[in-house]
Design brief:
Blueprint: H1 2-35, H2 42-60, H3 64-87, H4 95-117, E1 132-138, E2 141-146, H5 147-169, H6 171-181, H7 183-188, H8 193-214, H9 226-240, H10 245-265, H11 273-285
Antiparallel strand pairs: 1-2
């Protein structure tokens, strides 16, 4: 009985954290899918979202779950401006130029945050941080769902569902998908592809900032926090298939589950070892990802 409870608790923890990984990875996959650019600075927008939510909490008393919407809106605008001024000029440039630009942007954002906010770690205090929902209780143990992770997971579901609705059910979403499939044909059909690129980049970084804000109750904000997530984001996206939004969701859940179950058998320092072994195997055996269809 105790082993079963341990398994179920690990499963719950993995799904909850995996849902958040999925949301912060969706933006990276969306940007690549539409613009065909690998944005190495993407995790820095998670850091920006965390700081926006922290300032909203510290100076206006806004809970990070609501501050996430402010982070989404602000970062969406920042992303569109960046796309127009920095990304657009190198859209058709050699891939090495795109890599240099996004890596340079990574260092600029991280060091800019260090200059503005200092190296201090910032955390929030909420009423639900130390509370948990009890699903099952017996002499053998209990099944608990921490409320901060549950709320973050539900907010991740909300943003992921909204993005799915936008892409599949709205005219602009269909125009964005048409742009990702064939930009020239989309232009011939009267679609403003430049505008679609701007919106896609804004939505991509905004979604990641949203994910950063909702994890603020259990992860402290700092200018270097993006480094903790950048590899996990790329791992989730590669597992699901680079450019596939649905694949990013599957990949994010997989990363959360692999991390959670690895912690059962390995020391905490080696928690990501199993994850990266699987990551390398997928790259070697199925580089298009586990969800994406193999090209003929």
């Amino acid at each position: 009985m105790q082993n079963l409870l341990t398994f179920l608790q690990t499963l719950i923890d993995g799904i909850l954290i995996g849902g958040v990984y999925a949301v912060i990875s969706i933006g990276l996959s969306l940007v690549f899918g539409v613009m065909h650019i690998v944005n190495f600075a993407h995790a820095e927008f998670l850091m920006i979202g965390m700081f926006i939510a922290w300032f909203a909490w510290a100076f206006a008393g806004i809970d990070p779950m609501f501050g996430a919407f402010i982070a989404l809106g602000v970062t969406f605008v920042i992303g569109m401006v960046m796309q127009r001024t920095l990304i657009k000029p190198i859209l058709n440039a050699p891939q090495v130029s795109q890599i240099f630009l996004t890596v340079g942007l990574l260092f600029a954002l991280e060091n800019g945050a260090l200059l503005l906010f200092g190296a201090d770690y910032r955390s929030v205090s909420t009423s639900y941080q130390t509370q948990a929902l009890t699903l099952f209780s017996s002499d053998a143990g209990r099944l608990l769902v921490p409320l901060d992770k549950l709320y973050a997971f539900l907010m991740a579901l909300l943003s992921g569902g909204a993005l799915w609705y936008f892409l599949s059910r709205t005219r602009w979403g269909r125009a964005m998908r048409a742009t990702s499939q064939d930009p020239m044909a989309a232009r011939l059909m009267g679609i403003n592809t430049d505008r679609m690129y701007m919106i896609a980049f804004g939505l991509g970084v905004g979604t990641t900032a949203f994910g950063g804000a909702v994890i603020l109750p259990y992860i402290t904000a700092s200018p270097t926090v993006g480094a903790q997530f950048v590899v996990l984001m790329f791992t989730a996206v590669v597992l699901g298939g680079l450019g596939s939004v649905a694949g990013a969701v599957v990949g994010g859940i997989m990363v959360g589950l692999i991390q959670s179950f690895s912690a059962l058998f390995l020391p905490i320092q080696l928690m990501n070892l199993t994850l990266f072994v699987i990551f390398i195997l997928v790259l070697a055996l199925r580089p298009e990802g586990l969800v994406a269809r193999r090209r003929a």
